[in-house]
Amino acid sequence: MKPANWWLPLLIVVLIGLGSLLFVGSRTYSDAPPMVDFINRSGEKIFSREQIEHGQVAFLKYGLMDFGSMFGDGAGRGPDFTADALHEMALAMQDFYSAASPPHTEFTRDAIAARVRREIKENGYDSERGLVRINAAQAHAYSQLLVHYRDYFRGKLPLLPALANADGNEIDDLATFFFWGAWVSGTQRPGKAYSYTNNWPYDPEAGNTPPRSTLIWSLAAILGLFLVLGVVLFLHGRFSQLVGWRARNREQPSLTPLWVNHFVPTQMQRATYKFFLAAALLFVLQVFSGVLTVHNFLGLNRVLGIDVAQFISLVSARGWHLQLALLWITACWVGASFFLLSASYSNQPPGQVGLVNLLFWMFVAMVVGNLAGVMLGPLGVFGEYWNLLGNQGWEFVEMGKLWQSVLMGILVLWAFILFRGIRANWGRQQRWLLPNWLFYCVVAVSLLFLSSFVAEPETNFVIADFWRWAVVHMWVEAFFEVFATILVAYVMYLMGFVSQQGASRVVYIAALLFLGSGLLGLSHNFYWNAKPVATLAVGSIFSTLQVVPLILLSLEAWEFRKLPSQQGSAGFGQAEAFLFLLGVNFWNFLGAGVFGFLINLPIINYYEHGTYLTVNHGHAAFMGVYGNLSLAALVFCSRYLISGDAWPAALVRRAFWSINIGLMLMVLMDLLPVGFDQLVTVIDRGFWFARSEEYIQSDTFQWLTWARIVGGVVFTFGGVLPLAWLMLSRYRARKAVEPTDGVGRDITPEFG
Fold first, then answer.
1. Is 439's pLDDT higher than 90?
2. Distance of CA 430 to CAs 5, 425, 446, Å?
3. Quick check: pTM over 0.90?
4. How many Å separate Cα 44 from the centre of its chain?
5. What is the CA radius of gyration of the chain?
6. Three-class secondary structure of residue 217 per DSSP
7. Are 27 and 530 in contact (CB under 8 A)?
8. Which residues make beta-bridge pairs with 39?
9. Cys staple from 609: which of 72, 178, 411, 475, with CB 3.0 to 4.6 Å?
10. DSSP labels for 431-496?
11. Are strands 37-39 and 131-133 parallel, antiparallel or unpaired?
12. 80: which strand partners?
């Protein structure tokens, strides 16, 4: 617990995590399934490596990862093209042998099915010559797959209008890319008894059933969870008086309503309001894009007689929905970090406000360019510059390379502004203060974002997906968790509920737990997308252990909930922000903990991967935890920036309950039941069918999708729109004063 000793355990955890990442990355490169020429037994070329690459480029260029998925990664409206192509391959091979060996008795049908399963598993890769040899039945399946996808994509033009610009060669190259994915999923990895994807997706027709390693490592993960949980709970009971909200609080909390209403913000703090206003507007736009995405499932693409899909296609709407979620939350976190920094140190260096304003306008330019690119890129507006200005095609990393570079500049400038703010107070004994933690975390996030620049459109999909997950997972399940804890601890400190030392201890323990499980837990995203089997072992153990810090947060939730009652008769001036922090605790347990654990065990994930159970976890964890936290930061800071007599406390409380009840209704009425129904469908008929158009358009799926609208109405009209209206209409700037007259000296004497 001595801060002077904190660096060593943290360094060990980070080095182990990064070492694991480097191991998985190096094995990904060395063990990646080959993208090479495919020939028949006579030596004639069936298709070339360039056709596979061109197909992958077309897959990204037209944004198909925001329509369907590859190896289970991507959207859920369209098929998983890996599973679809594998099943079509098996059926075509059966037809090939059936035509050659009538009559069709039950015995011959069973014999043909067994032969097809065996031949799909045979790996004809010749590493010396750099090619794959396939038999006549597989070559026939490839020719049939070309016909299948020509018909499929031409029939999907109302959903994917961008494909109207695709020529026949691009469609055939797409089919070639999907055939390669099917081959990767079906053929055995050299020297192993399972495929490159560990026999995923589940399709008995193609011989894909779960290997024994999925069960073995699931049992090992459960064993490890209970062992580690027992140790951590013992330590929690032993040291809870030193760490967490039970630690000694500050004796005189300052945040009475009277104190908050008389707060006078500094110029730096006033400059942060535009970030929160932008966040509120982007939140509304994100909900709007989500509405368009859901309506597409229901076939409601026409508004006032206009086909909206011709202007904002399904892939554009979903790309917006994902990008805007990251953008509005980022705006909240950037604004909150600057506000909290200026509340901690009154002696901010000159020029800080100018840098904050510069960062904001860089953010605006990046958002406008990003959204325009995601919308227009798949429509072919940018031509050969689609990857630079449009939609890169990678789920969650849709923004064009140019806007990606601008975002990198924003992250660097963010870290630079924070460093300037803490530099004057930098000292050997103060390296673990809360402002310093903010700086460390932003630097880590910036470094991780470099991973998004590695892959090119032609990079082997398996390798490129490793780098995509290095951004998405490492941000969300490692450093974002730490940053979230920093914000919570910081706000709780400024609310007067915990000392600076106690808040720093909370952050330190959270950093050890989240980085210790999150960095290694990255591998649970690599179970089935053609990564080495070692990732199955690492991912199963450490992704399961990610539940441990969430359970600890739940244990602290009761003490956390009781903190405002300690305020006494004077009352509490930040009750609305505290409500959102309670929401963070609740969804940390349910969305991230319960729903995350539900899908992370390999034996469950094998059947569940790519279904709505993943979507359920994603919505409950991302909106429930990061969304509530961002809104807590927005409300906390806005409470100081909006005049006391203009603050609508009842409206903010109603917004909180509407957002969280609406989210719960979406989970319980749509995402969770759809997920379980889809899981049962996978087990009964195979993954390919659970993602087929027949299932997506079934009455059960459609009815449950309609049910989501009920929760969405409560979420939007009760919560999101009122918050946006509040930020637009109620701002009355409090008078700006010089930093020396600000509140930092009074509210945070330990930082002074």
1. yes
2. 13, 8, 23
3. yes
4. 44
5. 27
6. helix
7. no
8. 45, 133
9. 72
10. TTSHHHHHHHHHHHHHHHHGGGGT--TTS-HHHHHHHHHHHHHHIIIIIHHHHHHHHHHHHHHHTT
11. parallel
12. 69
